């Protein structure tokens, strides 16, 4: 009895990815005529009988994965989305991205929509604190779930950056430069990035025997507008900070706007550190120091975890993958005026 050819063999003969073969089979409109002809020729030559659609119907699968993001236009998320999408397409899945705008009700609505059979798995980095009713909604999802940059709930698989380590490095650098009034702006402590950054910030102070001023720790929101208002308020203090750490990938623009409004110069008047390297941090003059991590690695890891859960089911012990962070001071960090005797 002749062996049945596989979709992988079709892809190899046509010199395309498995995802491309899947898109041709499913009559996707984003395939060029040249590629479509190559795939169809390979299918005919091998005698491959596409049965993915029939198999999906029998198994109740949509061959689609859902991804809920707070804000889809944040530049740093481009690498994450692109890499994850490529991984899913290679496996024959489409990636459906939804924008929650950081609103609790919107996140709940999207989760319930995804629970109705639209997707086979979910990637999510919720802005809503993971507790009470919201955690129950997550637990009741009928499909696998992988958390992005969240370390809760403990029963869920997750991939997140080492924000604690990165913030510790940045804070330690500023302290060694002579800064003693360092402010940190980040998200709520109920969410991993906010809590981890505050831990790293406080530990760096403790390691050097320096007491951090609680008034300079603003852990309330990751939004850029909040960063602007918080920075403006801090700069209006009788003893303003000499350095600010923007602890969120969308916060730097708000911090810089507030500093410019005050007519201050970076780094002569104030040192600044951002989170996540992007065009804003690199093209600013001087370039802004950043705590960064590989968003491509986050995307690839998250996709791999979710595909494994879809294929093999839930594990007894959930996997937690921590992505390392690094700190590059670039040109925005220098000793404060007091430390240089320039008052």
UniProtKB/TrEMBL annotation:
Residues 5-59 form the HTH lacI-type domain. GO terms for molecular function: DNA-binding transcription factor activity; transcription cis-regulatory region binding. The keyword DNA-binding applies. Keywords: DNA-binding, Transcription, Transcription regulation. Gene3D superfamilies: 3.40.50.2300, lambda repressor-like DNA-binding domains. PROSITE patterns: HTH_LACI_1, HTH_LACI_2. It holds the Pfam family Peripla_BP_3. Transmembrane segments: none annotated. This is Transcriptional regulator, LacI family. It comes from Paracoccus solventivorans.
């Amino acid at each position: 009895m002749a062996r049945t050819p596989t979709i992988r063999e079709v892809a190899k003969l046509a010199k395309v990815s498995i995802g491309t073969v899947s898109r041709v089979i499913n009559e996707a409109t984003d395939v060029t005529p040249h590629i479509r002809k190559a795939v169809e020729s390979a299918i005919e030559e091998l005698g491959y009988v596409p049965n993915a659609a029939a198999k999906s119907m029998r198994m109740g699968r949509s061959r689609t994965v859902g991804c809920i993001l707070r804000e889809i236009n944040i530049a740093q998320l481009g690498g994450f989305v692109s890499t994850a999408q490529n991984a899913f397409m290679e496996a024959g899945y489409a990636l459906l991205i939804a924008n929650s705008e950081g609103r609790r009700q919107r996140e709940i609505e999207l989760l319930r929509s995804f629970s109705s059979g639209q997707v086979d798995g979910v990637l999510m980095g919720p802005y809503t604190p993971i507790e009470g009713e919201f955690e129950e909604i997550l637990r009741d999802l009928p499909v696998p779930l992988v958390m992005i940059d969240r370390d809760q709930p403990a029963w869920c698989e997750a991939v997140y950056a080492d924000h604690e380590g990165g913030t510790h490095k940045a804070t330690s650098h500023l302290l060694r430069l002579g800064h003693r009034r360092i402010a940190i702006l980040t998200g709520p402590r109920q969410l991993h990035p906010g809590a981890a950054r505050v831990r790293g910030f406080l530990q760096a102070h403790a390691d050097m025997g320096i007491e951090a001023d609680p008034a300079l720790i603003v852990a309330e929101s990751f939004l850029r507008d909040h960063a602007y208002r918080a920075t403006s308020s801090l700069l209006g203090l009788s003893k303003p900070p000499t350095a600010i750490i923007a602890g969120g990938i969308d916060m730097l623009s708000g911090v810089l706007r507030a500093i410019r409004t005050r007519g201050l110069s970076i780094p002569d008047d104030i040192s600044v550190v951002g989170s996540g390297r992007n065009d804003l941090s690199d093209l600013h003059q001087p370039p802004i120091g950043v705590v960064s991590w590989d968003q491509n690695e986050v995307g690839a890891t998250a996709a791999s975890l979710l595909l494994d859960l879809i294929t093999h089911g839930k594990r007894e012990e959930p996997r937690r993958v921590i992505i390392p962070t690094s700190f590059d001071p670039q040109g925005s960090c220098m000793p404060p005026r007091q430390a240089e005797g320039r008052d």
